């Protein structure tokens, strides 16, 4: 006999209690969590985020590059509103979107509207919390086919833009631009790969407290073998864009492979960096790679080692010690696919197979505020937004009411945004007109007075691989110094932001040779020798 007896309730009363607790539950199962969207074109999916109000925002470019389609949904995937960015005569292609500190959105991509002959320019667009255009800027590089890979907001509200090929020098394949909150250019930096590496491409950018990490792919030879092999490529800068370290992953371990365009870099709470990428030494298959925060290789692990070939979607931290990812591939000429849960070594803990063709094309995945998995995939002309719980079962819908777009003072209306952008046009000026980076002092020789013109742009060097950075006005103040031939400093004056020239009376200076130099952030950015006679 049971020690505890349960009092039997009348059936009607019991039913009422069941209904009452059922309605209180926020996770009531009423249907599978799958939503389907289509605009009639084959979609090119590129971005999925969870917004501050627990809804989702995702982007689709149609296969003709005619427009970008932005869809905002509620927590259950039901569409709330959508936006289309388009230009009738030119293409627009968006590669990523993030929510900003003011609950608006920042987008980045490419358009040929201002450079139809060159093939495209990077564009950056800021929307407010209502999805309305605040500003749009295009980094105009005539005759050069370049584009924005990622745009991320910094903690102080500025933006860092990762671009490809935004420089007239064909060897400068990766750039970072920093722009202020209004879209004005602050600085540009080119990054050359380490010695021996070539054909480098950056695909992802993460913002850290002490700098920025760029990941991508380059080619690098094995010892004793000519040519090069695909390798994951990772480097870190400080917040001023100065290069801190570079890593060609596999140059020590012999790993061959590449990081895909949609595979984000994951930064752990312990400072390590993870990516899933294609491991291609023998047969392509998805692998987890780890890089220490100091820029050193750690390890790699194939995530579905039986497949040949194989692949999958991006990997995400479910918590500090667990990853989840969709993986798939061919085993004995049969296609397989599954969601897996692994430890941080990439060792599978458990999995669940899926046979749906559309799930095999999972391209974007995120972890929600309540540790669920929301993913975006496609098949044919359809996009599939689906949600799984931690057991990889389709999640249930929420019956609790949520308030959406509360930062917008009025209901958000679906609309079309025309691609009318301001131009950032001076990014190549230091290359085309190097005289604009020079300090000029005249007359030379001089007798009584010197006239000094300050450069419009400052070229800095990181000292690592001859990487250069161009600072665009406005910059912090510089210092003008003058030294005698004996190395004694005879003049020093801080030059404020808006000062472009200086007149200096040198009548009392001893006759001889003097070196003038302009100093920015402890680095000499330009110098000029002058004779007084």
Which features would summarize this protein structure in a list?
single chain, 533 residues, mainly beta, Neuraminidase, Immunoglobulin-like, 3 domains, 6-stranded antiparallel beta sheet, 5-stranded mixed beta sheet, 41 strands, disordered N terminus
Structure overview:
The protein is mainly β. The chain has three domains: 45-192 and 396-426; 198-355, Neuraminidase; 429-532, Immunoglobulins (Immunoglobulin-like, Sandwich), CATH 2.60.40.10. Helix content is 3%, strand content 50%. The protein is built from two helices and 41 strands. The longest helix is centred in the first third of the chain and has 14 residues, at 11-24.
**Sheet with the most strands, sense and barrel status:** 6 strands, antiparallel
Radius of gyration: 28 Å
Count of beta strands: 41
**Share of helical residues:** under 10%
Q: In one word, what is the shape?
A: globular
* Proportion of beta-strand residues: over 45%
State the low-pLDDT regions, or none: 1-30
Taking the alpha carbons of the first and last residues, their distance comes to 116 Å
Content-based structural category: mainly beta
Order of adjacent strands in the largest pleated sheet:
10-11-12-13-36-35
Overall domain count: 3
Helix count, DSSP H or I runs of 4 or more residues: 2
Mean pLDDT: 88
């Amino acid at each position: 006999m049971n020690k505890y007896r349960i009092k039997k309730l009348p059936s009607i009363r019991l039913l009422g209690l069941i209904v009452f607790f059922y309605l209180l539950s926020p996770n009531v199962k009423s249907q599978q969590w799958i939503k389907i969207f289509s605009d009639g074109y084959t979609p090119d999916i590129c971005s999925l985020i969870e917004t501050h109000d627990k809804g989702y925002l995702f982007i689709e470019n149609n296969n003709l590059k005619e427009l970008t389609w932005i869809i905002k949904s509620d927590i259950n995937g039901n569409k709330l509103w959508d936006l289309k960015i388009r230009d009738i005569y030119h293409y627009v292609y968006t590669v990523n979107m993030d929510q900003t500190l003011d609950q608006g959105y920042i987008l980045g991509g490419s358009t040929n509207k201002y450079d139809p002959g060159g093939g495209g320019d990077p564009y950056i667009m800021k929307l407010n919390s209502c999805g309305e255009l605040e500003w749009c800027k295009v980094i105009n590089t005539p005759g050069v086919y370049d584009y924005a890979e990622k745009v991320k907001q910094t903690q102080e509200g500025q933006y860092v833009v990762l671009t490809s090929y935004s420089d007239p020098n064909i060897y400068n394949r990766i750039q970072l631009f920093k722009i202020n909150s209004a879209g004005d250019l602050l600085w540009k930096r080119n990054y050359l790969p380490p010695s021996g590496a070539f054909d480098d491409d950056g695909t992802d950018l993460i913002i850290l407290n002490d700098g920025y990490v760029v990941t991508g792919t380059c080619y690098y030879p094995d010892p004793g073998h000519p040519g090069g092999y695909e390798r994951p490529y990772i480097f870190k800068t400080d917040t001023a864009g100065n290069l801190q370290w570079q890593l060609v992953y596999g140059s020590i371990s012999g790993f061959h492979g590449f990081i895909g365009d949609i595979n984000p870099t994951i930064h752990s709470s312990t400072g390590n960096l993870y990516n899933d990428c294609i491991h291609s030494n023998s047969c392509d298959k998805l692998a987890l790679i780890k890089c220490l925060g100091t820029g050193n290789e750690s390890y790699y692990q194939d995530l579905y080692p039986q497949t040949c070939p194989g692949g999958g979607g991006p990997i995400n931290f479910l918590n500090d010690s667990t990853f989840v990812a969709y993986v798939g591939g061919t085993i004995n000429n049969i296609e397989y696919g599954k969601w897996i849960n692994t430890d941080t070594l990439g060792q599978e803990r458990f999995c669940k197979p899926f046979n749906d063709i559309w799930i095999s094309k999972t391209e974007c995945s995120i972890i929600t505020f309540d540790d669920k998995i929301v993913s975006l995939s496609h098949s044919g002309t359809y996009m599939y937004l689906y949600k799984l719980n931690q057991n990889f079962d389709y999640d249930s819908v929420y019956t609790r009411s949520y308030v959406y777009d509360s930062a917008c003072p009025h209901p958000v209306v679906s609309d079309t945004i025309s691609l009318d952008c301001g131009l950032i046009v001076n990014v190549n000026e230091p290359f085309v007109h190097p005289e604009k980076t020079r300090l000029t002092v005249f007359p030379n020789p001089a007798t009584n007075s010197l006239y000094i013109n300050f450069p419009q742009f400052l070229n800095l060097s990181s000292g690592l691989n001859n990487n250069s950075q161009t600072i665009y006005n406005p910059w912090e103040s510089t210092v003008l110094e003058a030294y005698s031939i004996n190395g004694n400093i005879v003049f020093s004056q801080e030059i404020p932001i808006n000062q472009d020239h200086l007149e200096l009376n040198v009548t009392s200076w001893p006759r001889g040779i003097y070196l003038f130099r302009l100093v920015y952030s402890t680095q000499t950015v330009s110098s000029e020798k002058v004779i007084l006679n």
